[in-house]
Amino acid sequence: MGSSNGFYSEEFDLDAKWLIDPKLLFVGPKIGEGAHAKVYEGKYKNQIVAIKIVHGGETPEEIAKREARFAREVAMLSRVQHKNLVKFIGACKEPVMVIVTELLLGGTLRKYLLNMRPRCLDMRLAVGFALDIARAMECLHSHGIIHRDLKPENLILTADHKTVKLADFGLAREESLTEMMTAETGTYRWMAPELYSTVTLRHGEKKHYNHKVDAYSFAIVLWELIHNKLPFEGMSNLQAAYAAAFKNVRPSAENLPEDLALIVTSCWKEDPNARPNFSQIIQMLLHYLSTISAPKPVIPARIFTSENAVLPPESPGTSSLMAVRDDLGQIPRTQIEVRPKAFTPAAYTIQLKTQALHQGKHFTNPEGLKRLQD
Q: Which residues of the sequence carry a binding annotation for ATP (predicted)?
């Protein structure tokens, strides 16, 4: 469909159940920012949410492009639900383009790993996170969607730091065997080599690729989960891209267990067709996880009152079946108290603003949405 200004635009056609009422949306502190959008903590109805406000653009061409991208992202989010994908709550286009999702309080995987350095994740935890990511990707691919921007910044942890969810569909595209896709892609360090043919891509250049680009990115993320180091350390993003694309350079897999090394090296192969799909990746990860022995139960020291005392055998308990995670990562932030059902909307608005001020937060009314775009 063509827009009135002559540039291509996509129709914002959303099922009524996903339409957000801006009057019920309260915007709080900013928690993130990207090239095309800002993300705020907020409140919708009785739920703490993440509010992504998309920049409208300056020129007619830019406006049309961002509206099309927004419509595409909303369409995909509304179509795909999975426990390892950030839950979509709704969207609206007026007064500004807004996408509302659940708010995860565990922070990004990038921040979680940085807070742990120089320590590494427990191997069971690292593989568990990798399984979460692989399951999210398998779901997307089963719906014909390529994410194209798989990296630690787009992976969010739950408050208990036990689950990873994939977020940000801003660069996701529906896959078509006959389609050539634009070269607008994710961060170079995690990008598959076939996404670029020169270090600097021309605007709008077309490239052939398929869903296997996500398998490459997954390999780099998995390597990072295991080593807790930046991949291609010592290189800039562009240097990493050049080394991967033109010299077939990859991070070292020498110190990895054999089964994990096989997963990583097969996923980042130069030939996309030689890379496994995510159903196969999940099976390989599950097999490796089954080979890792569970942590041994800690048997407390006993005081023997007699040399001939007979003691019952120790029960391993449930602790031996659980990965130790309590000492990892940051402490989740406290949520704003959920509104009691008996509150009227007016009373709740007053209470919410009072609570927000006490917590150093300020929630704006819907009319403020327009100002946030500036």
A: 52
Q: How many residues does the chain have?
A: 374
Pairing mode, strands 155-157 and 164-166 = antiparallel
Given CA atoms 34, 38, 40, 45 in this order, what sign does their dihedral have? Answer: negative
Do residues 29 and 361 touch, judged by C-beta distance below 8 A?
yes
Residue 14 is predicted with a pLDDT of 76
Token pair for 123: 């191997």
Task: Verify cis geometry, omega within 30 degrees of 0, for the bond prior to 60.
Answer: no
332: cis peptide before it, omega within 30°?
no
Architecture of domain 109-291: Orthogonal Bundle (1.10)
Residues of the chain with CATH 3.30.200.20: 16-104+335-373
Any known ligand binding at 52?
yes
CATH code at 16-104+335-373: 3.30.200.20
User: Which stretches of the chain score pLDDT less than 50?
Assistant: 1-9, 172, 174-186, 197-203, 304-358, 371
Q: Tokens 């787009």, residue?
A: 154
Q: Determine contact, residues 221/131, Cβ cutoff 8 Å.
A: no
Q: Which residue has the tokens 């994990």?
A: 260
Name the nearest CA neighbour of 78 among 65, 89, 67: 89
Cα 301 to the chain's mean position, in Å?
44
pTM: 0.70
Which pLDDT value is given to residue 33? Answer: 80
Q: What is the pLDDT of residue 322?
A: 35
Tokens of 74: 């909303």
Token pair belonging to 9: 């635009």
Task: Cite the beta strand spans of 79-123 per DSSP E.
Answer: 88-92, 97-102
Strand stretches in 123-263, DSSP E: 145-146, 155-157, 164-166, 173-174, 181-182, 206-207
pLDDT at site 224:
96
Which residues are tagged catalytic?
A: 149
CA distance 34 to 250: 27
